[in-house]
Amino acid sequence: MCPGTVQRSSSSLVSLIVTEASAQIVHAGQACVVKEDNVSERVYTIREGDTLVLQCLVTGHPRPQVRWTKTAGSASDKFQETSVFNETLRIERIARTQGGRYYCKAENGVGVPAIKSIRVDVQYLDEPVLTVHQTVSDVRGNFYQEKTVFLRCTVNSNPPARFIWKRGSDTLSHSQDNGVDIYEPLYTQGETKVLKLKNLRPQDYASYTCQVSVRNVCG
């Protein structure tokens, strides 16, 4: 080395930090925790025809990849084969058949993938169908005759509908009128209510209305 010559050397240390993927599902609208059969789960409610938007917020390094999948509403149904590789899942005009459990899976090759899920409950209420049935009993000739009319109201809905029967503008209740009976037939699952008019009286000849509504499962 020559006198007066200065020699410098430098080195740099690069530190690479990797972290496992994490995920969180966020959305606009109403969600709640519903307990069924002693099992609690998070439920997001939406009306049929509205737009579903679910966002999977992820963290991790490298940046995780996101995949959306779903199962249908029935536990016996299989996973849908189609998947969405995007952090935001958007379904325009959602249909009742698109309800079910949606899964967000985030993975970046570090550790195990992060999986979050939410159940989407699509609510709907179809027009009710009203049918009329009549029975006539004739005992001992003309000494006894009974005419009974059954008004049957059926509707497809989710969740099960609430029924109100009206005669004119008056709400009917078998606790207030012993001439009527309101019940759910056997082997139905909340989609039908029957109004029984027992031994028709003069006031029973009137106009009847079946009003149906649904209650949001989140209150």
Automatic annotation (TrEMBL):
Coiled-coil residue windows: none
InterPro entries: Cell_Adh-Cytoskel_Orgn, Ig-like_dom, Ig-like_dom_sf, Ig-like_fold, Ig_sub, Ig_sub2
GO CC annotations on file: axon; neuronal cell body; plasma membrane
Domain Ig-like: 46-119, 128-219
Stored Pfam families: Ig_3
GO molecular function, one term: axon guidance receptor activity
Species annotation: Ictidomys tridecemlineatus
Protein name, entry field: MAM domain containing glycosylphosphatidylinositol anchor 1
GO biological process, one term: homophilic cell adhesion via plasma membrane adhesion molecules
